[in-house]
Please model this.
Amino acid sequence: MSAALYTRISKDPLEEGAGVDRQEADCRRMLAQEGVGEPLVFRDNDRSAWQRDRKRPAWDDMLAQVRVGEITMLAVWHPDRLMRQPRDLEELIEAADHGLRLLCAGGGRDLANPDDRLVLRILVAAACKASDDSSRRIKRAFDDRAAAGLSHSGERLFGLTADRAELVPDEAAAIRDAAARVLAGESLRSICADLDGRFTTVRGSTTWTHASLRGVLLRPSVAGFLTRRGETVGRAAWPAVLDEPTWRAVCDTLLDPERLSRRTAAHRHLLSGLLYCTRCAAEVGGRARLRSLKQTGSPTRRRYACPNCFRNAVSETQLDAYVLAAVDERLAATTPPQPATPSSDTSELDAARARLELVTREFADDPDVSPAQLRILSKRLRDRIRVLEAQAARAGARSTPLTFDGWMCEPPDRQRTVVAAVVERIDVAPAGKAGRYLDPSRLDITYRDVS
Model:
């Protein structure tokens, strides 16, 4: 006879396992009284048996062994540790058609006995009803908190204090700076590199990733909105880090499919799109093949290589350093141009907002306009307003003059912006002979007119 024990607890956010450890100790005592030696142990910690979409790996493994007859005795602290949905009990009964003895602290049950199956069905139904009642009470309490503008989550939001009563000044400033840089066209990777080491995420990491920064900027709470069950339900009680137009513009930018399709190698290298091979006139960089040469005892080297003739390559590190120095010297001798300030005309946006207010006021109680028609018209106007707000926010970001003071200390994306504003193209000639250092005579830099 093969014996096993199963332990489970629904909530253990710290993964300490104290609850399942106590259950396991009690189950081992029950099996020892039956003269059973070392049993198989199945453990589902921090796993719900009531939620229908929640996976229980240990339950699935245990059920598979019951189905093939490997387990004939199973010890659990209580049947509700094993099952809180009637369908789980029926699945266990079906799997144990050869017979399964269930040991519990309150007494044993034999799944081959119809009377014991009846008792188990009653116990599991009662456990399911208790979980249903708890769920209703918790949801009702969450609805009350949402109506008061409070969140049901205790997680600290980046940019806000733990109680969400006040802004954290330096974190809020970092979010606003990141939003402005996104609207100006800068990549999240570059912004993450700037945040690394300076700020700690709410998960305690000092390393920022594309996903963590994107989550902070897209979360409605950063604009002072409260969400409930995936829907925005109104204004939150805590202060907003970003104003609504800026936040919606950032969302439109980050969720733009065209932005996602533009994630190419051109964003990963300083000079991609500016380099050309003098041997075959092909562009080097953006569509070039980047080769990594691993040599014993030396770090990996990267280079720009021509993707057409494969006869022209140059060290990426050395070429980047040379061009940065050349551009810095060029800027010191010239006056950089200031970009044109985009139009700040918001008449169309004001008109769309006025139109939405008029529609809401005039047609809300009009018997000739159905609720469905009103929703469609309002949605069209709101969509148009979001587009206009995004355009206005982007225009405001672009209207900031491009400054060159201290540009050599800026992140790579900002350095690239400056280089592209000064350099039109760089023609690279093949190397005459192999060497460890860059030969400047191979380069022909064409500068833009910045006078």
User: Anything to note?
Assistant: The first helix runs from residue 18 to 33. The chain has four domains: 3-133, 169-261, 265-339+403-447, 347-398. The first strand starts at residue 3 and ends at 9.
